[in-house]
Each structure stands twice: as structure tokens, then as C-alpha cells.
Amino acid sequence: MIENKIGKIKNIIDKGTVEYLLNKYDALPKKDNGLRINADTLVDQDFNKKFNKKITEILMPYFQGHVNHATIYSDYHPGGIHSDGWIDKPEQIKLAYTFLIPLQSEYEKNATIVFEETSEEAVTYNQATGLGQKGVASYQQTALPDSDHFVDADTQKKWFPHLEGKLPFKIAEVLTWEVGTALYWPRINLHASAWFPSDSDRKAMVILTNE
Ligand SMILES: [Fe+2]
Fold first, then answer.
1. How far apart are CA 98 and CA 84, in angstroms?
2. Quick one: 80 exposed, middle or buried, by C-beta within 10 A (0-12, 13-18, 19+)?
3. How far is residue 101's CA from residue 90's CA, in Å, rounded to a whole number?
4. In a domain? residue 67
5. Domain that holds residue 54
6. What gap in Å lies between CA 179 and CA 203, rounded to an integer?
7. Which of the 8 DSSP states describes residue 31?
8. How far is the CA of 191 from the centre of ligand 1 (A)?
């Protein structure tokens, strides 16, 4: 079982499963949200029970909660700071972790950055940090909170040259990407992708869970 709140699970899937998921991405209908192309894979519907079971089995040795949603996506622009909390109304079962499994990672410095600040509701600061309406599906746009600490200028330049203004958050962890190795953090923790070149191959599966 996972012990830390934020961390990695080395080689959670093998090469064959990476291939299977990339093929699944190719086969599924897709939607563009302005920063990435999403292939919605499920998962709380009957017709996708088989896929849900597969994902649940991948996580089972480490996490025994409920798989609520899984998306395979292809990023073409680094995204903004947000939480993967509930949308519209609180979910019936307590929010658990987000698991992100890189499937393709051409840029060697790909990373996901997790902050200490949290939000139970899915929020995004894309508008407030210069990304406008890009990358926003149904997440609530929110003003940046008041804070007495900020990401320092050098760190911001290193990881978030695509975001504007001072970021009133504290970095908890920088999780670097390796194909097949899962990254995880509590869904309520704010997080963002580190900058990456728009023309590099970058695909991942994100799994949202409940306890
Ligand atoms: Fe997210």
C-alpha cells in the first residue's frame, strides 16, 4: 500500500500495458480543451466495466479504493494550477488520490508539481495566471488566494515560465515523469504540469479515485 500522501509507484505498468493504453487512446473519440486532447475512457458507466476492472487491478496492490474516472490524454501546452476535486457538488464517497501514469514522455524534464494548498472543489487559476479559458473543462475559475508566501522567482522561471504573475503557493513535491511509473497525490492538492515544449510527444493516463 502507498504510505506517503504524495509519491511515485515505480513501474506500476509494464511496456505491454503502456502499448495497450496508447492504442486505446488512438481508438477512442477525443476532445480538445485548448491545452490538451482528451480521450475519455470512463469509468462509472456499465459499458466500460472491463476497462474499469483493468484500471482497478493495476492500482489494487497499492490502493484499494474506488476508481471514479480515467482519461488518456495528449498534452500540447503546459497546463495551469488546479485541483482535481469535486465538480458541481461534493462526491458521495470521500475524495482519495489522483494517479498519473506517463505513457509517452519525449521531453526529459517532464514533471508534475504538487502544492501544499488544497481545494475540495475542482478549481483552476488559469484565468488568474494568464492561460485564460484554455484547459478548462468544467472546473471553476477562481481568483488567486491571499498569501504571505510565493513561489520564488527562480523556481517559477524554472518550472512555470508559461504562467504569469506571482504564484501564492508552496511547492510540496516535484514529481518527474518516467513512462510506466505512477505519480500520485491527494485529489484536493493543487498541482500543475511543469513547462514542456509544445511539439514534444507527451501522453498520460490520469485516474481519479475515491476512498
Ligand atoms: Fe489534475
1. 7
2. buried
3. 25
4. yes
5. 7-210
6. 9
7. E
8. 6
**Plot region of 34 (φ>0 → left; ψ -120 to 50 → alpha; else → beta):** left
User: Rounded to the nearest whole angstrom, what is the distance from the C-alpha of residue 46 to the centroid of ligand 1?
Assistant: 25
Residue 110 is assigned to a structural domain of this protein: yes
2 in any annotated domain = no
**CA-to-CA dists, residue 115 to 57, 82, 106, angstroms:** 28, 10, 25
Q: What is the pTM of this model?
A: 0.93
CA of 206 to the centre of ligand 1 (A): 8
Cell of 33: 480543451
CATH number for the domain that contains residue 17? 2.60.120.620
Q: Strands 140-141 and 123-124, how do they pair?
A: parallel
Q: How far is the CA of 197 from the centre of ligand 1 (A)?
A: 19
Per-residue pLDDT of the chain (211 residues; tens, 9 = 90+): 888 999 999 999 999 999 999 998 998 888 888 888 988 776 545 557 888 899 999 999 999 999 988 999 999 999 899 999 998 899 999 999 999 999 999 999 999 999 999 999 999 998 889 888 776 666 788 889 999 999 999 999 999 999 999 999 999 999 999 999 999 999 999 999 999 999 999 999 999 999 9
